[in-house]
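Our platform keeps sequence and structure together, in a single record for each protein. Such a record has a labelled line for the sequence and another for the backbone structure tokens. This encoding replaces a full spatial description with a residue-level series of whole-number codes. Below, we set out a record of this kind in full and without editing:
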Amino acid sequence: MSHILPGHSLVDSLQINDDTLAEIAMILKMRRDFGMSMYKDKCMKRRIAIRMRSCRCSDAAEYCNLLRQSEQELDHLKKTLTIHVSQFFRNPSMFEKLHTDILPYLFQKTDIARNNLRFYSLGCAGGEEAYSLGIILRQFYSRQLMDMPVEIYAYDIDNDILEAAARAEYNEDRLKDLPDSCRERYFVPNGKCLKLTAEIRDMVSFNQHNIMNVAALDPCQLVLCRNTLIYFTRQDQEKILRGIAHILPTGGILVLGKAETLVGDTRQLFTAVCPVERVYRRL
């Protein structure tokens, strides 16, 4: 779940043209095996400009030269290009929809003989979305979990982000939409942060995976892919959505971000359950 970082004026003043973007992409591909081609150029230019300003580079040539010399800056740039910002229960109305409608539907639909449900959080960032799902399940569906355990898998391309997510230590700003009852029950003070209890941490498995290869994942019943597609080109959005359709069975649920929607032929693969919350059911 990602945020576009501010800085339109930076892009203009630092003149990150297409040739510069291609050169930086080549350096990242050769040195970090990180491909930029699937991301929107506008987003990438904005984030590169942020690093250029941070390094006090006066122009693109100076920054490219820095990238060739500095392993540390390569890592900083890669992290900036994939930066994720989120919080617990972001867009509370969507989680309320999950709680009241979607989860009861999935528990009722699934054959108990299969003995488990599998839920995915794609582009999981700091893990807030996956953990929020775990909190809902633990707080409201503990009885159902005894009969039908739920596996929550959270995926991201950045291993450092995944390691931080697994530690589950958060600043106050990440918890601003968290109900007080959940905060008191599931978090404990840990220095200047709050740490999620093992009761919820143990419900989520974090794994490194490129969302472009989502079709390679095992089948599941629910996919949360919120505020991630907006960074991809239209062609790659379609590829990702087709991959999600591939791993969802008939009746499986997809949730997108408020600024996202189905595109191209993928509209024929899903039907809207709740257009306002961008909830879709696999046909």
